[in-house]
Amino acid sequence: MKKKIGWIWFIFGGVAALAIGSIFLLVAVNAQAESLPIQSATHEGIKWSPDSISPLVIPAADFVNDGLENSYFYSFSAGSIGGTDCWEAPVYLPDGARILQYNASIDDTDAVGDFSVYFRRKYNGPGAGATQLLGTIDSSGSGGYVTYGDFTIDYPLVDYPGYSYMMTACGFSANTRLISLRVYYYIQYTYLPGIQKR
Q: pLDDT category, 196, cuts 50, 70, 90?
């Protein structure tokens, strides 16, 4: 009789352990599903998350002179670079990211001279030609501190190691200065369909 009762308790304990384990598994899956961003598909078949837009900030301090030193000045206190010269800075984005837009904060108080910022990429393979232009920003007028944006990006998909990415900038007046750039992009995610948030 004692042996039979022992088997009953053993079976009951096993069933209870399975039930408790199943409850914890469901709670964990539901918690993970709630934390996942909503997915949207593109024509390439890659899933992108609209909740994962990230800005890459490129300060004026990242820019170096193009080698033809004319007349320019980097202000430590203002954190800006300007003058009648040209500069370049590398752009480091995640591989496979999709670029949405880029913005430039420019201080332009010259009614004639403007400031230009070009977003470029360079093919790293053999026989590489000229850089390809992804976007262009030009200041205009003399309104002082203004944020400009380019929302029509050519070649928006970041492709490493095929390409290197950079910004080039030119000032055409002592009264035009670059403050900073922001590149906005999507991060690529791959999730199991069973735990996607609907």
A: low
Q: Which CATH architecture fits 47-186?
A: Sandwich (2.60)
Q: Give CA–CA dist 165/183, Å, rounded.
A: 12
The amino acid sitting at 175 is: N
Measured CA to CA, the distance from residue 157 to residue 89 in angstroms comes to 19
Pair 114, 173: CB distance under 8 Å:
yes
Query: What whole-number distance in Å separates Cα of residue 58 and Cα of residue 81?
Result: 12
Its pTM stands at 0.69
Quick one: CA dihedral 120, 79, 149, 85, positive or negative?
negative
Question: 52 falls in which pLDDT band (50, 70, 90)?
Answer: confident
Distance CA 147, CA 168 (A): 17
